[in-house]
Amino acid sequence: MVKSNNIYIRKKRKKRLIKKCILLLILLLGIGTFLAYKTEFFTVNKIVYKGDSLITGEFVKTNAEEVKGSNIITFNKDELIKKLMQNPYVNTVTISKKLPKTLEVNVNEKKGIYYQKNGNSFDIISEDLHLLERTNSLDGKNLIEIKGLNIKDKEVGMKIEENTRLEKVLNLLYKAEEKMQKDNKGVSITSLDVNDMANMKIYFGDIQVLLGNDENLTKKLSDAMNIYIHAKPKEYIKVGHEGSPDYK
Asked: Boundaries of each POTRA domain copy (predicted)?
């Protein structure tokens, strides 16, 4: 009988302890909810900017600063990302919440690599064929002229065309130009013509380089660059055919 009473007492104490724990948990949740929604403890008062800011910096800051004063718990970061992505130069955006009061905004920009003349203005184009900007001046911009893209009826922010083959060519030429500038050997790609992908042309200043198609493009560029530096041609360099390169 005594043993039965002890078991009963222990069960009763256990139930009381569980009830107290539940009440304590409810109390803590209530306090947490109050702090999160009814006080300024989780109010955004600081925004940290990371990543690229050369072109989009002011645009990103202007829009992100509007978030200050918002509740960091309920703040919908997807809405801000959608707003920032409206800038054609913005490639990717990530936003991290750093409790209790800080947002971290990380922006990756598209790079304007090429330009194509469009009447009295210039269309700035990325290596992945997005139309980034339409401007009346190229001052301060070190870009490669491109010919042969159909930009008619394209608006800023739109992709000019879906062409993986051309994108690879533009990416390769951009990297080659970067290396030329880094090596500082006095050669630079100033323009390219992609009207006919089977007979592409680039220019080292006034010297035309006939590349042919996009096969073995890295080797063709290397051969053309060496001829330009050492042979100093006056008119053209031809590396787009089988056999030894030709120049004049």
From this structure: 42-110
